[in-house]
């Protein structure tokens, strides 16, 4: 099969690409390397890597007219909620306008497509007290990131309904695993935490900044489980035109994550506290009944996932 993975040098995209290549599929990756790294791709010889922005209309047209894809996974985005609060206009260009353009190009030029899978987010639910979040829960996007994710997700589903572009969307909760870039202040919290632990182990005296008091709750899901969910959603017939939460149904607060990591590493990470970030969601956990109906069952607890990740990174 032929796949296009946008954002394929990033965290989720590179893990997906590496798995697809291992299964013998052909993969084209487009990534501007703003957060991704070419080194995340295990077998570059077997991937057609294109460095460029999804906002470049000419480039996207050339890719979507040159190849006929069986599957498109759209993962490229400004992936940080906090970054979108700093840069709402740039976020909108990447996280919405580029998606609309890609869907329109697919509508006009892709004849063989079996599925377009859009990476949406749990952020669309906002901070509404109704928990766990079901796909039918109220949508209260609190940031440009969340507004754009919801709008792009709806656009993908509307292209399915109006133009027969086969599309599904996944609302990822908080994903962690190898290849998550810890270098930006806006990186995912687990990647930043692990970076701080390893640097302390190497003798650097570096403190982790916790925004808030650590009581914020997330549904953390390990990348292996996410890849399983992505395959199920992309290959199932009943997922066509549907949206799926991708989480574990387990709540973990940041203090618990840090406690588990202290246990795994065998020392207490030095922490400094700052005010909670504006636009931050306090509590988020998924109901995954819909995903389970496709045959999904998460296999890793947070402790198991974190242990595998620490093993992978080496101490
Ligand atoms: P990531 O930042 O590692 O991956 C995104 C990739 O897109 C990066 O490699 C980046 O360089 C690339 N990119 C950014 N702007 C681009 C542009 N204009 N043109 C081309 N490439 C561009 O983030 P991730 O965690 O792998 O997230 C993947 C997708 O999943 C994103 O859409 C994100 O919003 C969504 N998501 C992630 C999580 C999570 O917990 N990681 C949760 C919900 C949704
Ligand atoms: C994350 C994803 C986002 C996704 C959302 C879905 C990233 C960068 N963000 O956002 O793409 O749509 O899940 O639920 O992958 N924190 C600290 N110190 C730090 C960094 C973060 O205390 O150095 C705190 C944050 O303030 C927040 C929590 O940790 O309360 C989680 O932050 P983050 O990893 O950025 O995740 P989300 O904002 O939930």
TrEMBL record:
Pfam families: Epimerase. Gene3D superfamilies: NAD(P)-binding Rossmann-like Domain (3.40.50.720). Residues 4-247 form the NAD-dependent epimerase/dehydratase domain. InterPro entries: Epimerase_deHydtase (IPR001509), NAD(P)-bd_dom_sf (IPR036291). Belongs to the NAD(P)-dependent epimerase/dehydratase family. PANTHER family: DTDP-D-GLUCOSE 4,6-DEHYDRATASE-RELATED (PTHR43000). This is NAD-dependent epimerase/dehydratase family protein. It comes from Enterococcus asini. The lineage of its organism: Bacteria, Bacillati, Bacillota, Bacilli, Lactobacillales.
